[in-house]
Amino acid sequence: MNRLDPTVRDLLTGALLYGIIVEIIGLIFVEERLRYSLGILVGYICVVGIICHMYWILEKALDMDPDSASKYSLRNSLLRYVCIFAVLVAAMLIPQVSLIAVVIMLLGIKISAYMQPMIYKYITSKIFKERR
Length: 132
What we know:
By secondary structure, the protein is mainly alpha-helical. 83% of the residues lie in helices and 0% in strands. It has one domain (6-126). Helix 1 (6-29) packs antiparallel against helix 2 (33-61), helix 1 (6-29) packs across helix 5 (108-128) and helix 2 runs antiparallel to helix 3 (66-93). The longest helix is centred in the middle third of the chain and has 29 residues, at 33-61. The protein is flat, with a radius of gyration of 16 Å.
């Protein structure tokens, strides 16, 4: 995990913490625990894929001229939205996966982005002993 970009590492850590918290809270209140847990897992896998994809696209776009980078970023952003839509449709069609849990976990992207400075300050900088 040392080779990952520190910001991506912070985002993934934030998403994992969010997923753990949401899982614990959900297990207290939800009756169908397996469905809920599978929904959280599917959502977390999707979140990891989205965060990594955004990083790879940004890295490639930075090496392009502005017009090409804009088109490339837009095309890949639309691809991410199609993938999210496909995951949500699959969660609707597969009765063993909770659609609500998938949506709750997909919100982890935004939550981890907002928590990134705190995640770095209190967790990852201490674990990896680094300064930015």
